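Changelog entry: the Probable GTP-binding protein EngB record was regenerated in this release. Current contents:
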Amino acid sequence: MKITSADFVMSNSNVAKCPNEPLPEYAFIGRSNVGKSSLINMLMERKGLAKTSGRPGKTQLINHFKINNNWFLVDLPGYGYARVSKKDKKTFQKYITEYFQKRKQLVCGFVLVDIRHDPQPVDLEFMEWLGTNQIPFAIIFTKADKLKPAAIEKYANNYLQKLLDGVWEEAPTHFITSSSNRMGREELLGFIEDINQEFFKNQ
Ligand SMILES: Nc1nc2c(ncn2[C@@H]2O[C@H](COP(=O)(O)OP(=O)(O)OP(=O)(O)O)[C@@H](O)[C@H]2O)c(=O)[nH]1
Ligand SMILES: [Mg+2]
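Regenerated structure tokens:
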């Protein structure tokens, strides 16, 4: 898919106030610092579109970006970040879960995980919660540039195998990406384009 426009639309913490156009929407979720905002910038080829930081906890609201004037990307705050106060953390969790439960336009959630790490309890818990609520999602492995090329598949397969050893009967769709070297960009945009086509065909 060719990106012809990527525009920031709005930030808010209230799902009811998110854009109400009936366009397909994709949300990026995962632990703080996993690279959600960086991935959005890489996909859109726009460095400062989504705010990034080396310090976890940068993104704090639901951020909507309108792409090619016919679909939305959503940058969400990270979960599982211990340095925000307990009260703030609760608020994030409440509107994150509310977002996934109430957002009718959402066609796929992308759960980002660092390719170097084993499945973390908070990620497993969130994926299980998505499964239970029948919310479609795919896994995106991030920061693949941090591994030697030969190790990349091995780490991803190891992660997926651990899901299969747990509660998952089938491995979710997955993508291997790096915001530093653009790995996975074409695959991910192609996946989105296919879903968009289905979405508009059924309108
Ligand atoms: N090497 C490498 N670093 C990355 C990659 N993606 C993100 N980073 C770095 O990881 C840090 C966090 O990136 P963000 O994109 O802000 O992460 P986030 O998930 O949006 O974080 P929060 O908004 O705090 O939840 C930054 O220092 C990025 O430069 C990647 O693919 N490769
Ligand atoms: Mg962010």
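The chain has one domain: 6-198.
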